[in-house]
Amino acid sequence: EASEAGANSSSTEAPRGSLCRLIGWMLGTPLQDSEGPLRFGLAADAKTTHWIRHFPAEVMTSKLRIAGAHLEEHLGPARLRFALEERAGALHLHLVGMRFWGLPCPRALLPRVTAIETGRGDQLHFYIQASLPFGGLVTRYAGHLELGTERTGHP
Known about the structure:
- The chain has one helix at about 20-25, and strands at about 10-15, 35, 40-45, 50-55, 60-65, 70-75, 80-85, 90-100, 105, 110-120, 125-130, 135-145.
- The protein is mainly beta.
- It starts with 8 loop residues before the first strand and ends in a 9-residue tail after the last strand.
């Protein structure tokens, strides 16, 4: 687990609107605005990595695994499928598919996701935002982790 010491920090933004708040609650994303220290933990087995993000006001967990050429993330009843792209030294995750309670989400209804990670010195910076296609912020969080010499993962 990444150390809370040092300058690990994050900010979260709460969902906007009742529907977005309900979806955020189902996914386990932060439900309130916060700013402060971040702890990040990893637990892995042969096929899955469990991410535990300790934001100042809440904890968010997800499971990740490689699925063919994609990265799959499980958040509550949702399974999100991302294509990964390196561009100008940053890792961009593009949402290419989603299942909710096992049912495929039509492309037109996919959330609009911005997910970017960059390394600067001994820091991993991240910016994540998800909104519904017809408006409404479900989650936004950003910050950085001090990597130092510890073995850490991504937010």
